[in-house]
């Protein structure tokens, strides 16, 4: 197996002018995407919202909620043609760094049981399953549970 180098990328704060590109990535990646308005609301609410760019193209994004010593990764995505190159790990590290900067002691996220690639990434970064949320996600045939995962930042992981 030949190792593929991670492309040169930049992670920067999301801007209003990024919303169309972010919404397009979201729609191409998920059967039940967030609307552009939800992304705009996250910016308005002051959530740490980040985009990953290669050259001038937005190829990924991550949105975090922070408060009361906790952080919650609300949404994270890498565009289909850039997956498997280490960009998701790089973006997750940035989100975890932002959580630390906000003095969060723990980071939470939800992931679909039908997304084993994301689960493996999160576990490799020190996240542990702490529970489930029944019927959390919309699915083609009803609803899908969510696996709730957490990363303890005070233990010095990641």
CATH topology: Aminopeptidase
Proportion of beta-strand residues: 35-45%
Number of domains: 1
The quaternary organization reads as single chain
State mean pLDDT (0 to 100 scale). 93
CATH superfamily: Gcn5-related N-acetyltransferase (GNAT)
Number of strands: 7
Q: What gyration radius follows from the Cα positions, in whole Å?
A: 15 Å
CATH class: Alpha Beta
Shape: globular
Strand-pairing-aware structural class: alpha+beta
Summarize the structure in words:
- With 158 residues, the chain is α+β, with helices and mostly antiparallel strands.
- It has one domain: Gcn5-related N-acetyltransferase (GNAT) (Aminopeptidase, 3-Layer(aba) Sandwich), CATH 3.40.630.
- The protein has four helices and seven strands; from the N terminus they run E-H-H-E-E-E-H-E-H-E-E.
- It has helices at residues 19-29, 36-44, 87-101, 116-124; strands at 10-13, 49-54, 57-67, 70-78, 106-111, 128-139, 142-152.
- A seven-stranded mixed beta sheet has the order 1-2-3-4-5-7-6, with helices on both faces.
- Strand 4 (70-78), helix 3 and strand 5 form a beta-alpha-beta unit.
- The longest helix has 15 residues, at 87-101.
- It is globular and about 40 Å long.
- The two termini are 26 Å apart.
Which characteristics define this entry?
4 helices, 158 residues, 28% helix, alpha+beta, Aminopeptidase, 7 strands, 7-stranded mixed β-sheet
Furnish the topology, listing elements before pairings.
Layout: E1 10-13, H1 19-29, H2 36-44, E2 49-54, E3 57-67, E4 70-78, H3 87-101, E5 106-111, H4 116-124, E6 128-139, E7 142-152
Parallel strand pairs: 4-5
Antiparallel strand pairs: 1-2, 2-3, 3-4, 5-7, 6-7
């Amino acid at each position: 197996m030949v190792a593929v180098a991670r492309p040169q990328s930049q992670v920067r704060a999301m801007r209003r002018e990024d919303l169309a590109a972010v919404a397009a990535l979201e729609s191409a990646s998920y059967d039940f995407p967030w609307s552009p308005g939800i992304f705009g609301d996250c910016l308005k609410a002051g959530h740490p919202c980040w985009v990953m760019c290669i050259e001038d193209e937005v190829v990924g994004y991550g949105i975090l909620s922070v408060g009361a010593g906790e952080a919650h990764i609300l949404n994270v995505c890498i565009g289909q043609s850039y997956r498997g190159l280490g960009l998701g790990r790089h973006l997750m590290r940035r989100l975890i760094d932002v959580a630390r900067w906000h003095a969060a002691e723990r980071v939470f996220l939800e992931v679909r049981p039908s997304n084993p690639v994301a689960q493996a990434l999160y576990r490799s970064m020190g996240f542990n399953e702490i529970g489930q949320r029944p019927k959390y996600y919309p699915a083609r045939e009803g609803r899908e549970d969510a696996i709730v995962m957490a990363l303890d930042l005070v233990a010095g992981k990641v």
